Amino acid sequence: MHQILEKEVLAPDVVRFWIDAPHIARKRRPGQFVIVRLHEDGERIPLTIADADPTRGAISLIIQGVGRSTIAINALEPGQHLLDVAGPLGLPTEIGEGKSVCCIGGGIGTAVVYPIACGFKAKGGRVVGIIGARTKDLLILEADMRRVADETIVTTDDGSYGQHGLVTDALKAFLDRGVRFDEVVAVGPLPMMRAVTE
């Protein structure tokens, strides 16, 4: 059993939890995930480890309530428990020393790219964060990304906040100015990731 320590609503249907998981908090690396199960008959849900606090023995999970299981988990409150949190699982993201990296998050994809940005920064890298969403209410982790990145650009499709446009517009502006990155890491909807690659 893993106790929920904190709960924060980040956007409609998107919740950040801090969960008691000392073993995972000590061992996790950027890019790894856990498998979560609410109860004995519950669905096994893979979730990126968004952050960790080894001192407190806690990990952060960001969950978008889109199906029965994720909606049920998002209804939990501090003091309640998840039956299983298994991990850390998966290969960590390969993070080189001192790289110049652009980390791009679209919508809920920001929850996945954020720990990677932290990893590059911890290895002495220069990190540019570009995060975007359809509208201001759907943006997540802006303050977190601003704390870790050397520069952060926020875009909204509808212009309700930050720069009006897509994350690819912000990336193109950097490239047009002659800024070059050793790597670009993009996580978000498939059309967004395809556009970043192009």
Task: Give an overview in words.
With 198 residues, the protein is α/β, with parallel strands linked by helices. Helices cover 26% and strands 37% of the residues. It has 6 helices and 12 strands. The strands form 2 sheets. The protein has a 7-stranded antiparallel beta sheet, sandwiched between helices. A 5-stranded parallel beta sheet has the order 11-10-9-8-12, sandwiched between helices. β9, α4 and β10 form a beta-alpha-beta unit. The longest helix is centred in the middle third of the chain and has 13 residues. The protein is globular, with a radius of gyration of 17 Å. It starts with a strand and ends with a helix.
Short note summarizing the structure:
The chain has 6 helices and 12 strands. With 198 residues, the chain is of the alpha/beta class.
Give structural attributes:
198 residues; 6 helices; alpha/beta; 26% helix; five-stranded parallel sheet; 12 strands; seven-stranded antiparallel sheet
For the record, give the distance between the C-alpha atoms at the N and C termini, rounded to a whole number.
Answer: 45 Å
What class would the helix/strand composition place it in? alpha/beta
Shape: globular
Mean of all residue-level pLDDT scores? 93
Number of helices: 6
Helix content: 25-40%
Spell out the helices and strands N to C: EEHEEEHEEEHEHEEHEH
Total count of strands: 12
Sequence of strands across the biggest β-sheet:
6-1-2-5-4-3-7
The proportion of residues in beta strands is 35-45%
How can the largest sheet be summarized?
7 strands, antiparallel
Radius of gyration, in angstroms, nearest whole number? 17 Å
Q: List segments where confidence is low: pLDDT < 50 over at least 5 consecutive residues.
A: none
